[in-house]
Amino acid sequence: MSHLVDNLQYANWSEKIFRQMREGGVDAVHVTISYHENFRETVLNFEQWNRWFEQFPNLIFHGEWASDVRLAKQTGRTAIFFGFQNPAPIEDDIGLVGIVHKLGARFMQLSYNNQSLLATGCYEAEDPGITRMGRQVIKEMNRVGLVVDMSHSADRSTIEAADISERPIAITHANLHSWQPALRNKRDDVVRAVTQNGGMMGFSIYPHHLRDKSDCTLQSFCEMIAIAAERFGPEHFGIGSDLCQDQPDSIVEWMRVGRWSKEIDYGEGSASAPGFPPQPNWFKDNRDFGNIRAGLIKTGFNKAEADGLMGDNWLRFYEENFTPKP
Fold it and tell me: How far apart are CA 162 and CA 193, in angstroms?
C-alpha cells in the first residue's frame, strides 16, 4: 500500500485546507511551525496546532513517528509533522534540541537564507561552512532524532552538514539548479553530497523555484525529477511542495525579514511584486497531487518509482531518522 506524503507546507491553515488534504488523499504533511520565532513563541505555535487537533480530530492528528503515516492511511486522516525553517527555536541552547523533539519537532533547518549560529544561508556572499556550535548541534540532532534540513542553506554548509552528520540529512523543498538557476535551488555537487550519504530531497512547487515560474508545465517539472532520478537514484527524492496556500502577501515579508532588517528583502521575487506568485495550474492545492503522479507515469516512471516519489521514500526516511539513537 503506497502513501502520499508532502514534506513541506506553510499554508494559512483552516478547516478548508484540512478537508482538501482529505480530498487529495494526503496521508502526511510536514508543516513549518517556526520561521523566526524564539523558543517561547514556537511553543505558542505548538499550542495552536493542539487546538486544531482537538477541533478537527476526524481530519488531522499530530504525527510523531513513521507509524503515524500508516495510521493516517488506515483511519482516513492526515498526520501533521512539525518542522522549523530556522534554528531560532533552540536559541543558543543545545539543551533545547531534545526538548523540541519531545514536543514533536522532526525537522530543523540549520539556516534560513542568512548566516545563523549553526550554518550559512544561501543569500550570504561568503559561506564559511558549519560553525563550531553547528557541529555540536548536528551531533545532538542525530542523537535525539531531529532531522538536519538544509533547504535554505548555502552550498558549502550543506555539503559539510551531509558529511558531518552521522544520520542522513534532508533538503525538504528545493529543485535542481541546472533546471532553474535560483539561489535556493541545489547544484549537483550539493545534491550528490546529500544523497550519497542516504539523504532525501523534496521537489518544490513554489513558483520562484520553477522554470517559467507560475507558467511552469507539469511536463517540465516531471522531466526535472527524471533527470534527478537518473543522476542520483529515484529512491532519494520526494515532494516538498512549499505550498503557501491562502497566505496574505504580508507573510512573504515575515518569512524573509523576520526581525533582522528594517528593509524589505525581496529575495528572488520581483521588487515590484513581493507577494506570493500564483501556483501553476496543475498544482493549486492538496487535491492536485494526482496530477503529479500522472505526470510522473507519463514521463516514464513505473508505478513503484512513482509511489516512492509521491511518499513512500519519505516514509522510509521517517522510519530511519525520527527515533532517538539507542
Answer: 6
Residue 49 CA: distances (Å) to CA of 54, 63, 64, 115, 124 = 9, 11, 13, 29, 33
- The answer on pLDDT for 146 being more than 60 is yes
Which residue from 92, 317, 306 is spatially nearest to 200, judged by alpha carbons?
Answer: 317
Contact 238, 310 (CB under 8 A): yes
Q: pTM above 0.85?
A: yes
Q: How far apart are CA 128 and CA 120, in angstroms?
A: 7
Each as own residue / partner, the long-range contacts of residues 38-42 (CB below 8 Å, 24 or more positions apart, any chain) are 38/88, 38/89, 38/91, 39/89, 39/90, 39/91, 39/93, 39/96, 39/100, 42/84, 42/88, 42/89, 42/100
Backbone angles phi, psi at 83, to 5 degrees: -150, 165
Phi and psi dihedrals of 263, rounded to 5? -100, 160
d(C-alpha 276, C-alpha 290), whole Å: 23
d(CA 26, CA 58): 14
CATH architecture of residue range(s) 5-321:
Alpha-Beta Barrel (3.20)
Q: For residue range 220-238, what is the model confidence (pLDDT) as tens digits?
A: 999 999 999 999 999 999 9
- Domain coordinates in residue numbering, the chain: 5-321
Asked whether the beta carbons of 69 and 63 are under 8 A apart, the reply is yes
Q: How confident is the model at residue 173 (pLDDT cuts 50, 70, 90)?
A: very high
The two counts, helices (H) then strands (E), for the chain are 12, 9
**Alpha carbons 226 and 175: distance in angstroms, whole number:** 12
Q: Is 186 left (phi over 0), alpha (psi -120 to 50) or beta?
A: beta
